[in-house]
Amino acid sequence: MKALALNLVLATLWLLLGRSRTTADFFIGFVVGFAGLSAFSAVLDTGDYPRRVWALIRFIAGFLREFFLANLSVARRVLFGSNATLQPDFLTYDVAGLTRGEILVLSYCITLTPGTTTVQISDDFRTLTLHALDASDPDAVRRGIDERLRHPLLRLTR
Amino acid sequence: MTDLLASWLLLFGAAFILIAAVGAVRLPDVLCRSHAVAKASTLGIFSMLLGLWLELGTEAVGLKIILAILFQVTTIPAAGHLVSLLAKQKDLPRWRPAPRQAPPPTSGPSRPA
To answer: For A91-113, what is each residue's pLDDT tens digit?
Structure first.
């Protein structure tokens, strides 16, 4: 948190010292400040801030890729697939060890990634009920969520 | 160049919104339809607003369109989630694949969840 504030201060300083003041300049200052902070992270006591920023970038990039693939598969299914090949069913996904914020982000990402939507979060915040278009192999669906969403998310938050 | 990219993004977004509409007609039940509508219309609005942003340029609009994208992208999946949650709680009829698993070939609400 302190490192994030320091990074914002650096970006603002960059803005004040530069000739033009646009949104793009602010972001350039932010990136330059981040490079400085991660280069001197040992002396500046930034903690795990650089690692978390990288984890955030990786998570967003991975999520956008999944989101795009999900849309291509939905498009193929809607335009060319026949309903006879669907195997829609509910399945449960275990989220017992996660905090509420993590469950929120995870369930949101599940809705936007291939083949699954979140239907219900149990009252004790331990299981999610999902709906999958192809539920013939529920374990494969769970493994896919583990690999593509849960592990990058946990690298970001822990 | 920017014009061309913006036009392609608008076209792409419109195509995905069309796909969402076709999906809402073609897929068999509420829960399956929410898949198509939540995903395809989110990407559709996302890329249409991105195209608009490229077309207008940052001097004119700044980060307002980015904020609009953020709101759309966070609210559409929440709406899809609510629709499917309601469909589960109200126990709306679910479409089942006809062969193999269910011996009585009833087409209506065959199995409560």
So the answer is: 888 888 888 888 888 888 888 88
